Amino acid sequence: MIKLECKRCGHKLDYACPALEWETVNSTERQQGDEVFLSAQHAFKCANCGNEMLVDFSCSEYMPGEWNQGETVVVSGAKTIEDDCEFKPPHQNR
Fold it and tell me: Exposure string (b/e) for 11-46, b if CB count within 10 Å is 16 or more?
């Protein structure tokens, strides 16, 4: 769960981390195989004022199928108050 605050009206909301459609954005060859960098975005509106919000998720897998790291970034329309979102590795969403 991510707690957000709308930048337009200040409305606070709990955002449940959705199942995401991951897209490969880059990969690099490493000693034990490829590290694959993935990204997903989720757009939604503030229930109070209709302000558009966009949350950008990114992660990497190294070795293929092995979860490496995750990050949540609110890129527009909201401010993050608390981030307890737990990513599911992309291969577990399939």
Answer: eebebebeebebeeeebeeeeeeebbbbebeeebeb
Q: Determine phi and psi for 18, rounding to 5 degrees.
A: -85, 165
Q: Please give the single-letter amino acid code of residue 30.
A: R
Quickly list DSSP for the chain.
-EEEEETTT--EEEEPPPP---EEEEEEEETTEEEEEEEEEEEEE-TTT--EEEEEEEEEEESTT-EEEEEEEEEESEEEEEE---PPPHHHH-
What per-residue confidence (pLDDT) applies to 5? 95
Q: Whole-prediction pTM value?
A: 0.72
